[in-house]
Amino acid sequence: MNIRHSLHEHYNFPAIAPSILAADYTKLGAEIESCTKSGIKWIHCDVMDGHFVPNISYGPMIVEAARRSAPDAFLDTHLMIYNPAQYLEAFQKAGANLISIHAEADPHAHRTLSAIKELGLYAGIAINPGTPLTQIEELLPEVDLVCVMSVNPGFGGQKFINGSIPKIQRLAAWRKQMGLNFLIEIDGGVGVDNAEMIARAGTDVLVAGSSVFGAEDRQERIQRLTQKCIIGSTDLA
Length: 237
Hints:
The protein is α/β, with parallel strands linked by helices and 237 residues long. The chain has a single domain, classed as Alpha-Beta Barrel (TIM Barrel). The chain has nine helices and eight strands. Strands 1-8-7-6-5-4-3-2 form an eight-stranded parallel beta sheet. Helix 7 links the parallel strand 7 and strand 8. Helix 2 crosses helix 3 and helix 3 runs parallel beside helix 4.
């Protein structure tokens, strides 16, 4: 499960990654299965500690429950917490495939990213809307994914910050200039109305929470989001 291989060889991008932060936890298994049955390969797990962000979500037990509900899915685990290095092994044992840490939350991010990869997992770095890309420039060769927050983290259902688009475009340009292969992920405020624009900017993974789990017809919503992404990425090509 946690053997590192080329993500580009095993997954099609751009991809929709439903965030279970917006799911109904009284029926979490069914919520996740409704996504995987609709073709979803990636599941996003937002972990919040109530200190780095003003909310508490869940820990390794929910990630483990997600793994049991979707044994073949890619679990993209986003740690919005201080001292993430203390919890890497717990999330690895819970079934995470990728762990992202926040640049703002870890003064030793390089060491933590190395520790994630030593556990056989993919490593990601996340940045808040107010954080410049220059803060993570030196880390780009070390990561498999960069998560650009397009809302201020802590709560789901927030409005997309349009200033995230130029940030994605700059990041995509850097990736090409540096000859790197990391994925670009956007998290926050993703919906049918902006998915095409987000994909066109160069995004590989679009995290969608309330847009997916708040839809009456979940399969139809996932199909529409996916179609918008395909159109946007085709325009980019």
